[in-house]
Amino acid sequence: MLFNVISDAFMEMEATSKRQELTLILSKLFNQTPKNDLRKVVYLTQGKIYPDYRGIELGVADKSVLKALSIWSGVDIRQLETMYHDLGDLGNVAEQRLSKNSQTTLFSQPLTLDHVYETLESIATIKGSRSLEMKLRFIVNLLNNSSPCESKYLIRTVTGRLRLGIADYTILDALAIAFTKDKKNRIYLERAYNVCSDLGEVAQTIATRGLQAIKEIRIQVGRPVRPMLAERLDSAKEIVVKMGGVCSAEHKLDGERLQVHKNDNKIDIFSRRMEEITAQYPDVADSCRAGIRSKNAIVEGEVVAINPETGRYLAFQELMHRRRKYGIKDAVKNYPVSFYCFDILHSLGEDLTAYPYAKRREILEANLIVDGKLHLVPRELTDNPRKIDRFMRSALAKGCEGLVIKDIESPYRAGAREFSWIKLKREYRTGFKETTDLVIIGAFYGKGRRVGKYGAFLLAAFDAVNDKFKTVCKIGTGFTDEDLDTLFAKLKVQALPNPDRRVESNMSADVWFPPRIVIEIAASEVTLSPIHTVARNSIRQNAGLALRFPKYTGRLRVDKSPEDSTTEDEIIEMYRSNLKGRSPLKQP
Ligand code: AMP
């Protein structure tokens, strides 16, 4: 397959932000792709070469790419830097230079998908003292054989910033249309994706082996399962009514969710975002190796920092000391953790997800050798709201965030956010301000003490139906100088001159960002807004909703992907409960 078929499709996709059009362009591309190449094409449309859980990323530094562009074009690097400054995108620099560089056409050969993919693989995986030099050589080789349009997308891919803004679900829709001619079949593809977390695998399977094979994709040890998620309600009474009987009220620990895969002595630990993070938790890996009886199993739980003297749970921030590449040994010693298990998805080759929760918990209890570091999440079985309230108070006293209340009849539904799990959080109980998890999509330069960094941010909630990020507040409160420094360092390398394709905003920020970083915000109320785009026209014509008096809580939600942020529907729900006068957002 020639790479220009793919880059032409990318160009078409770039010209539209309508999900339906994107889906059709994609499905056409998938139909044009030889079946055995589909896996590669799917990864490339996402700007990747492997599924996320492999943890192998492209992300060559801008400086190195400029150097490669300079070697290839013979143009002085300073001149290219100026072009980059003016155009704001290295892909466009390559495209413009290539349009001018006549020499390239002399020796070039058409680029094939295989050649591009293999070269990108080499760029991502090469190690050693000469790796930088080799990477530059690979990039120059690609440029030598590219058309201007191809070079634009290749350079964006190499820097890890392709940003076509195609959501996983758009790809699933396109696959359903391309290979079954019926978009409704996307539900089967989605189930398969939730189970295997690999869009390439789903694409290849549907193309080569059809829908029946998709239905047969099963959980596998070593491959992360997309986690089941919780809805929220604001009183124990409501929750018990919703559950309709005895339920399992469990401590909601304020830590990090881990999915532990055990295969003989090999342990793989995955985060909620399905990154492989075994190296951060060698102590949890050791505990699970010894403490999970089954030879192979998948167990889920929450890892939490603990105070070794009192045994009390510590706040999530303490775990951030474990998010490092180097010095893990010291961090393990200085920041001890315990792992509290709450579910088991697989044991001894058997997929347990279809069993009711009560049965899975039984299997989990029989499977764990509880010790100082490995525990079962404390829980109470009850249908009495008063008992739940009492359990909630004791959980809060121990340092929990609240409770998660679970339907004991429910299967484990990978990737689903349903009322089979419901969270009851501290805020509802104590009248604290409600918190939301919002995505930074723009920023404003600081003044006074904040000169030289961003002083305020534009935040968005996620519209899951249309795959858009819609603005809900501008915020400059609650940030320490250190927070602003950290955010500036993280964000400045991602700055865009215009809003990302998935962003809907009526405000104009100084700089824009792709939706990536999620932060926790406390606010006092949700109100109608003439400017913000979240829930626009849902409550009132020409009005959206906004958070009032938003304040940063200090919590960077590295464990959440942008698609895990607070949704438009949740903001609407909060506005409605405001009106009912029993708002989770109301202050005491
Ligand atoms: P939230 O992040 O607010 O949507 O809450 C859901 C998260 O709570 C899960 O992804 C887990 O990381 C965490 N959690 C803490 N304790 C439990 C528990 N007992 N059962 C399920 N999830 C829990």
Number of helices: 21
Largest sheet: 7 strands, mixed
Number of strands: 20
Which hetero ligands occur in this complex? adenosine monophosphate
C-alpha end-to-end distance: 64 Å
Low-confidence stretches: 428-432, 582-588
CATH class of the largest domain: Alpha Beta
Radius of gyration: 25 Å
Give the CATH superfamily of the largest domain: DNA ligase/mRNA capping enzyme
The CATH architecture category of the largest domain equals: 2-Layer Sandwich
What share of the residues does DSSP label as strand, in percent?
A: 15-25%
Mean pLDDT comes to 91
Helical percentage? 25-40%
* CATH-assigned fold name of the largest domain: D-amino Acid Aminotransferase, Chain A, domain 1
> Could you say which structural class the secondary elements and strand pairing correspond to?
alpha+beta
How many domains, in number, for the residues?
A: 3
Cα shape: globular
